[in-house]
Amino acid sequence: MKIAVAGAGAVGGYLGAFLKKAGHDVTFLARGKHLEAMKKSGLKVIENGEPMTVDGDFTDDLTAFLDAELILFCVKSTDTKETAERISELGNDHAVILTLQNGVDNEEVLSDIFGQERILSAAAYISSHIQEPGVIHVDGVTKLVIGALHESLVSFRDNVAELFNEANIETLTRDSIMEAKWKKLLWNATFNPLAALSTATVGEILDNKELRETAENICREVLLIANKNGIPLKEKMFTITFKNAELARGHKPSMLQDRLNGKKMEIESLSGYFVKKGRQLGVETPAIQAIYSNLLYIDS
Ligand SMILES: NC(=O)C1=CN([C@@H]2O[C@H](COP(=O)(O)OP(=O)(O)OC[C@H]3O[C@@H](n4cnc5c(N)ncnc54)[C@H](OP(=O)(O)O)[C@@H]3O)[C@@H](O)[C@H]2O)C=CC1
Ligand SMILES: CC(C)(CO)C(=O)C(=O)O
């Protein structure tokens, strides 16, 4: 399949490399030093200590996306609208867009720009980061859960899942993809903003009485909002979220990594979204609101 990766960073570069290795025609969109390094020496992925390097079309020119059949949409949510609008202006009306981003708001933006019937979405259980320009470091076990926003895309969804499985990326499909995305978001909304603000790792949050209490309060607020918003997340998701956190004690959530690297943080998708939803739905969000306002201040 002809695949283009919009944002060949930690997630897009990693997945694109495996698809390229499996024999697909992959174009990688990147910029700056990361792009320069890939153009010079290829894209290196080190997964659990195992290195591999792939060649490919590395570019900052979006016209390379003109004949893509599948676009892996992997920019940070702060870049979603601008990147999507630029892709849309190309006039490639047949490509399907698969968002692998955290949060549940990117789907709304992408649907507005491309139409729901062209959007697949995935909950991406991946722990990766750009170790240095041209090099992506991946830890642990990767899993994707993919779904279609529109039923006309279900058979394409299945093809895409097969394509990832054949490329050794474990991939499941779900009919209720937004429920799967909310389940992952529950974890991200609980730990990413709090870690970014406090600079604590997941384990440090769990071990600190006050931070843990704040994380629990955030998790409860997100659960309430999900249910009021028609996403039936059961009470046991609270326990599961903290159990999963125990398995990721050493992890610095991506939002903390962004702060430490001086990059834009996904504050709106992982925090502000709930403040706004809470207001719409009549759910109080004091814990989220406090973290959100602090992050906005830091960001400014
Ligand atoms: N990293 C992880 O472990 C996980 C991340 N996610 C989610 O996946 C999404 C992507 O995250 P991640 O891969 O970590 O982010 P990265 O910053 O590593 O990757 C995004 C890449 O896209 C590039 N980019 C953005 N816009 C453009 C453009 N217009 N032209 C060229 N290049 C562009 C960025 O360049 P630049 O750096 O210059 O902006 C960057 O290299 C986020 O929503 C994140 O929350 C989900 C699961 C796990
Ligand atoms: C926890 C993790 C790595 C899960 O994929 C993540 O989504 C993040 O750090 O933002």
From TrEMBL:
<comment type="similarity">
    <text>Belongs to the ketopantoate reductase family.</text>
</comment>
<keyword id="KW-0566">Pantothenate biosynthesis</keyword>
<keyword id="KW-0560">Oxidoreductase</keyword>
<protein>
    <recommendedName>
        <fullName>2-dehydropantoate 2-reductase</fullName>
        <ecNumber>1.1.1.169</ecNumber>
    </recommendedName>
</protein>
<keyword id="KW-0521">NADP</keyword>
<feature type="domain" description="Ketopantoate reductase N-terminal">
    <location>
        <begin position="3"/>
        <end position="149"/>
    </location>
</feature>
<dbReference type="InterPro" id="IPR013752">
    <property type="entry name" value="KPA_reductase"/>
</dbReference>
<dbReference type="InterPro" id="IPR013332">
    <property type="entry name" value="KPR_N"/>
</dbReference>
<feature type="domain" description="Ketopantoate reductase C-terminal">
    <location>
        <begin position="177"/>
        <end position="294"/>
    </location>
</feature>
<dbReference type="GO" id="GO:0008677">
    <property type="term" value="F:2-dehydropantoate 2-reductase activity"/>
</dbReference>
<dbReference type="InterPro" id="IPR051402">
    <property type="entry name" value="KPR-Related"/>
</dbReference>
<dbReference type="GO" id="GO:0015940">
    <property type="term" value="P:pantothenate biosynthetic process"/>
</dbReference>
<dbReference type="InterPro" id="IPR036291">
    <property type="entry name" value="NAD(P)-bd_dom_sf"/>
</dbReference>
<comment type="function">
    <text>Catalyzes the NADPH-dependent reduction of ketopantoate into pantoic acid.</text>
</comment>
<dbReference type="GO" id="GO:0005737">
    <property type="term" value="C:cytoplasm"/>
</dbReference>
<dbReference type="InterPro" id="IPR003710">
    <property type="entry name" value="ApbA"/>
</dbReference>
<comment type="pathway">
    <text>Cofactor biosynthesis; (R)-pantothenate biosynthesis; (R)-pantoate from 3-methyl-2-oxobutanoate: step 2/2.</text>
</comment>
<dbReference type="InterPro" id="IPR013328">
    <property type="entry name" value="6PGD_dom2"/>
</dbReference>
<dbReference type="Pfam" id="PF02558">
    <property type="entry name" value="ApbA"/>
</dbReference>
<dbReference type="InterPro" id="IPR008927">
    <property type="entry name" value="6-PGluconate_DH-like_C_sf"/>
</dbReference>
<dbReference type="Pfam" id="PF08546">
    <property type="entry name" value="ApbA_C"/>
</dbReference>
